[in-house]
Amino acid sequence: MQQMADEQRCGYVDCDNTSSDLKCCAECQKVRYCSKKCQKTDWEKHIFVCKAAKPISTVYYLARDLGRDNCKVPLHHQTCVDYGFDKALRIFGSEGVNRLCMVYQKLIRHLRVPLKTLRTWQKEGRLVEGIKSVLEAKEEKGDLYDWFLKHQYLFDGSSIDRATTVRQTMTSVTAMLLKVWPYAGGSPHDTFATLLSKSAKFSKNQHNCFFFVAVIQNPGVPDPDIELRLTFGFVAEQALNVNLGLKYAELFTHCTFDEFCQAYGRSSIPALFARYGIVEVGHHPLFRDVMSGSPSTFKSVWRLKFYIEDVGHSRPGEHTPPAPSVVADYGYGNCKNAEETKLLDTLYAQLFGKHAVDPLALHVACFKGELLDFAKKYVKLSPWTAKYARLLKNSYSV
């Protein structure tokens, strides 16, 4: 009986093996595996927990979003640059991005190309050559292969001129909005000029809802620097453990545009999800909390999470600044230079990422003036303990 009590399950989620002699990850000393094979297979996910405070190769972001278990357009900025998504979006809009996703899904999910191989191709400027060789060797010469051959320049790392970017962005946005215009009550035969004229009568909430529906249905999720990620609850997606963009798309097949706008204005989108049977979203306490004051009022911890997610997906220095409430509550007002701001960014990124702390628990600690004690439970603060002690003081501290 004692032996069974000491047994633990392998840390790889798809493995059911249990043992009292699991081997610990040498990096984090927290997750245990039954074999090197399981540890190696799980690494593309575990790396985001194990090395949350260290630079992570963009190929792992690619695999995280398009690997075995997911089908999400990558948002991490450098990943989009390295693997052609930034260029595809600028030139072809969502259609080009979707095609690119299909190429990488085939490589990673179906053909099992090792991530290290993909990373080497990208680093050495040989993505086109490498992808072509794999698809030809596997005799994968269907429509996707033909598309790849016609659009090899998306994979070669070259830049595009600004005029092309502006022109293609306008074309993409126009198509995106026209696609969902009938859902908002317009005619499928309306021109873009008519759409602009009629939508000019929309309220601010209606404009936000219309643009959000367009983003979701094209398909995708709001970029990390767009406030719609906050107002529509994507800051709680990690805890939901679902693809929130797909759940919104499902909701739009049930509710009308007017229903959605009314729920948005009344801070009752969770209730709308629940009404149409999508209870894993509608009843989740964190989603309900972040949406309880949307679109106007949010706990500062949700604004902090929005800021930290934007920092993680942006080029250095190109992210949105923290909201005033975040500056006041979470120590950013104590920072004397960029180095100290980076210390706080790293700390909160570890808390939300590697340790997946409950944002509401962090919120409680903040309003008790106990941010330092809270952080110590999860993160090793040395050799900056004294500096963190100063930075993490707020108006609630004793």
Automatic annotation (TrEMBL):
UniProt domain MYND-type: residue ranges:
12-50
Top-rank taxon of the source lineage equals Eukaryota
Keyword Zinc in annotation: yes
A Pfam family annotated for this UniProt entry:
zf-MYND
* Alphabetized UniProt keyword annotations: Metal-binding, Zinc, Zinc-finger
* One GO molecular-function entry: zinc ion binding
Return the protein name: MYND-type domain-containing protein
Q: Which organism is it from?
A: Polyporus arcularius HHB13444
